[in-house]
Amino acid sequence: xxxxxxxxxxxxxxxxxxxxxxxxxxxxxxxxxxxxxxxxxxxxxxxxxxxxxxxxxxxxxxxxxxxxxxxxxxxxxxxxxxxxxxxxxxxxxxxxxxxxxxxxxxxxxxxxxxxxxxxxxxxxxxxxxxxxxxxxxxxxxxxxxxxxxxxxxxxxxxxxxxxxxxxxxxxxxxxxxxxxxxxxxxxxxxxxxxxxxxxxxxxxxxxxxxxxxxxxxxxxxxxxxxxxxxxxxxxxxxxxxxxxxxxxxxxxxxxxxxxxxxxxxxxxxxxxxxxxxxxxxxxxxxxxxxxxxxxxxxxxxxxxxxxxxxxxxxxxxxxxxxxxxxxxxxxxxxxxxxxxxxxxxxxxxxxxxxxxxxxxxxxxxxxxxxxxxxxxxxxxxxxxxxxxxxxxxxxxxxxxxxxxxxxxxxxxxxxxxxxxxxxxxxxxxxxxxxxxxxxxxxxxxxx
Length: 447
Known about the structure:
Layout: H1 2-15, H2 27-35, E1 39-43, H3 47-51, H4 72-81, E2 86-92, H5 118-129, E3 132-138, H6 155-168, E4 174-178, H7 188-198, E5 203-206, E6 215-219, E7 234-240, H8 267-280, E8 282-288, H9 298-312, E9 328-330, E10 352-353, E11 361-380, E12 386-395, E13 398-405, E14 410-431, E15 436-437, E16 439-444
Parallel strand pairs: 1-2, 1-8, 2-3, 3-4, 4-5, 5-6, 6-7, 7-8
Antiparallel strand pairs: 9-11, 10-15, 11-14, 11-16, 12-13, 12-14
């Protein structure tokens, strides 16, 4: 018997050790592998699905997670149909409710009415459909959770949870750490080292706080170049598929309310940002929230399938901008290097900036001749500067309005009834800071 026991103990000892790479990990290569997954589905499902609120503190009973069914196969199948490479799954939000069968707490999905390890089922579905798995993890928890954890949520509990996730559910592409409720008592440097101890090839990113990891996380971001001096190897951005400016109450990142079931961003918008992500080498994680039955909304599935079709059969490229490299002028200029022409050079790395003390201004382009126009694109990557603006054209010496709005954030497209014009301008009527525009391009009408 002793001869049998000793080898068994040795095996168990090996299994208990951290997963170690055979050789040091080339994280630059790993980042390129991750980028090759292109875009993915960010799934948020927790107490907030049923509360209708973005954050749901004060939950005392896991029965508040009222789901009685879940369809992870639908999630993974839809991701595959959308041309996605991965699913980013919320394992635990700030409420401390764990969507896997953890040993660290009773606040978990297997103690809820559903009684199933959702992460384990998702892993199986991802494997079946050829989808990689990434994880979202809230580093800390609401203060009231100390009522449920003797001594509160501790660094030891954080480490134990991460060890479970990184040793029981296969390869994890990256972890999206949310520091909205602090870091759980374990610094980001310590957290990154702990994760790499168990899965050295897993890339790490944090949405705020102490700088660490390999990925720059961009909550509510958009396609953007990454500063090579940042120290990061990849950049990720994400936003909800629900148009938040149109919804009638409810959450943004979780399933909202049935009244919003007909609202969804367009496939064209998602495809446009997908192309932007490819251009800049970004990861693009579009957020969707499964409903009360653990299924994606029909409108989300339909829209994501449409994006998949666009990816598989790309439409012909749009005609070039009529305004590209055309003569331009502006109400004022910040300094040499920020002239009006910088907004018409098809280069996001350059921009027009008004005078330092300006809080309004205009940017005008001469198309060279009267042209039929019907669309304009504006890129303002410095968010929330513009507070009121109009796109205008000159008709017999008078400026007439084509489009009007408030915030310019990221890249926006404006379509308007076709008109004939030679001179077109972006008129920033009110700004919170010096107006800055990366690109302002005018396009021929599609008649």
